[in-house]
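#dry-run=false #mode=assembly
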Amino acid sequence: MTRAYNFSAGPATLPESVLLQAQAEMLDWHGAGASIVELSHRGPEFIQVAQEAEADLRTLMAIPDDYAVLFLQGGATGQQALIPLNFAAPGQKADYVLTGHWGKTAIKQAKPYVDVNIAASGEGEGFRGIPARADWQLSADAAYVHITANETIHGVEFRDTPEVGDVPLVADFSSSIVSEPLDVSKYGVIYAGAQKNLGPVGISVVIIRRDLLERAGQPRADIFTYASHLAKESMLNTPPTWNWYLAGLVFKWMIAQGGVAEFAQRNARKSALLYGVIDGSGGFYRNEVAAAVRSRMNVPFFLHEEALNKPFLDEAKAAGLISLKGHRALGGMRASIYNAMPEEGVQALAGFMREFQQRHG
Amino acid sequence: MTRAYNFSAGPATLPESVLLQAQAEMLDWHGAGASIVELSHRGPEFIQVAQEAEADLRTLMAIPDDYAVLFLQGGATGQQALIPLNFAAPGQKADYVLTGHWGKTAIKQAKPYVDVNIAASGEGEGFRGIPARADWQLSADAAYVHITANETIHGVEFRDTPEVGDVPLVADFSSSIVSEPLDVSKYGVIYAGAQKNLGPVGISVVIIRRDLLERAGQPRADIFTYASHLAKESMLNTPPTWNWYLAGLVFKWMIAQGGVAEFAQRNARKSALLYGVIDGSGGFYRNEVAAAVRSRMNVPFFLHEEALNKPFLDEAKAAGLISLKGHRALGGMRASIYNAMPEEGVQALAGFMREFQQRHG
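#status=ok
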């Protein structure tokens, strides 16, 4: 098979030019005599890679200087345990707004460390919407308020930043970071596993307002302490250098393509095209998320007959459209269309969906 | 520069054939239409990669069935915090035998969770030896005994497995795993960051005697729980797939080369050659570690004059021998000669060291 259009939810498709560069540099990085994955993280070659990656991410996201940027292992789930450990006192309350599967994960990881208050939940409505801000039951003394900016499985996305007063807003942006301009200063902590919009799996980005690093948090190992990672510039222990390097190549590609403002436009067009096909299918395809909070990144949809799922997947694959099977928690289909999915890929999927409906409708 | 002989302590040199394969498969893994780093960890392609990696490692190390094998993020340092969290009751004692820098790290990460008893320490002698087993002050009620099998910085290596009775022996094998045959059944837990003998940085291997997973340990997040990772076959959250894949390629390479018995012979010859040059230099080069516990993996050495360090490193680099600078904690030089360093590389270094001495002696 030549390269397919790959709609995987993460690990997800990467820009072909990035893969080509990584391929070309695989045995000898810039004349160093070795691959970047074979060189010391403390040597000048990797230090350059690491510093450029941070600088480029700061440029892309316009991250203010009073925010620290960390590149860490452990994925978003790991951060979901570290956040209460670092930012909440033992037994302190923290507010969680639950809008899908990953919000549940965040709560599960936090519960051993913090008094979780579910301030609002979309579960009663099957996670098809986001509870109105006016209905959130926030605690006065919460350590922070946690939201999941985009729910990868349920396809629900915050389309604005909720006002939560002086309590720091902590947000899992794993699947929507750098997909459109964001006012970082409205958040206390932004965290994301890299494997959707930022690059390869195996590295996470954590953006922290620096004053929060002064919180005592809870007794914990040094390796679980964000301030210790910052003091060592994310090299408290050996970092995942190849993953960091590949993310850095993705950042350079995004800047060359026009930055997040450009991707915001592409992503709006891509998602509008797919939702248009679904909504215009007369019920052949179905997405039940409230229109105002439909995800621009993950488009889950169902065929009107379950028996059509297998032919849909088989015929899509034959057409060079792969990884469309929905998450096992929901079933159906899901098209994940992060920054690295070209508009041509989404157009090909939209065309296939219309043709499939004609053949099977 | 063409590829140099790279003596980096980790991230370290990888087999050239492994890099060539990864390079060839970078844009399309086995006809899947995507790179392995772009495919879902739950898809059939990566499941195959993951299962083969575990099976191959079990073959290489002859891991008994009553041991679980985990592939995790966080590095060895992360495991050093998870070990007391998973295997010690709050406030329980654990014995640590301190033979160098990484033993100190293990103690530092464990201290918030366990009553650390330093049962023996080589620090008084500058970590140039390993305290005799007869002198260890073990606790009767310890949760485990921790050793560092090979100290990467100090170049000190256990050359046998210490007897510790019924208390589980926990060992950091980051820099010597799969370098020679090992009786896994003598250990409760073996852990290793991959970036020395197993493959790329960003993934760790943890081998656990299954009965230990029944210990309650301490209150902790699910993501910090080994039993939870095992229940999900190391996919409790998205694993670092590319790192796992590359480690798997290294395992296949090791098996094809003859397995750990073959590498044990090569490693013995490689280290004997370098120590021979050092000991035969009449003091021009110096290694002060007790001969019986000199590391076969990391050969730290000093030139008799500090002023020679820079010319040594410059001339070595010009000769295609890189990453020989010693760790900042010790200074001097260090040649790390893991499995993937070919004998030709060590012969080239030995020849260079003799020539350098002739020119500068």
